[in-house]
Amino acid sequence: MEVITIDSIAFQKLVEQLNRIESYVERTTELYRDIDDALEISTKDLMTIFCISESTLYRWRKGGSISFRYTETGGVRFSYSSLFMAIKCFRIKIPGMAKEEALKRLSDYKDGILLNKCTTETK
Questions:
Q1: Mind listing the pLDDT tens digit of every residue in the chain (123 residues)?
Q2: Which of 8, 12, 61, 62 is the most exposed place for a label (fewest CB within 10 A)?
Q3: Strand order of the sheet with strand 76-79?
């Protein structure tokens, strides 16, 4: 069995592969961060995801617990990353739902959006 040293070609190839993997992980992490920042959820979708009422969302908005914006048509959009952090840091509590379940549902929603987008673009 050959010993791999720092000067060997095998070691250099291993370092190159690790650098490529590191670069891929960094790009993917940045992409997901950008998606989280750009993704917005409608009132209707949020009510469906968490099985909550519109008045609960109104209280969260009025209390400043989550970020939101009004659309041109008067609808409300909620920031995915703001919702995620509000749940994770216990700023909001979903009635009858553990924090882990709420985060999973939010993550599943995002995954569904991404999967739907990917399958739509490949057709």
A1: 666 677 788 888 989 999 999 988 988 778 777 776 778 999 999 999 999 999 999 999 999 989 899 999 999 999 998 999 999 999 999 999 999 999 999 999 988 887 877 766 655
A2: 62
A3: 40-42, 76-79, 68-70
Closest CA to 112 of 89, 80, 90, 88: 80
Residues 6+ apart with CB under 8 A from 122: none
Q: Is residue 13 part of a domain?
A: no
Q: Residue 44's domain spans which residues?
A: 39-122
DSSP-derived letter for residue 65 is: -
The count of structural domains within the chain is 1
DSSP string, 1-28: -PPP-TTSHHHHHHHHHHHHHHHHHHHH
Residue 33 lies inside a defined structural domain of this protein: no
The answer as to whether 57 is a domain residue is: yes
Question: pTM here?
Answer: 0.69
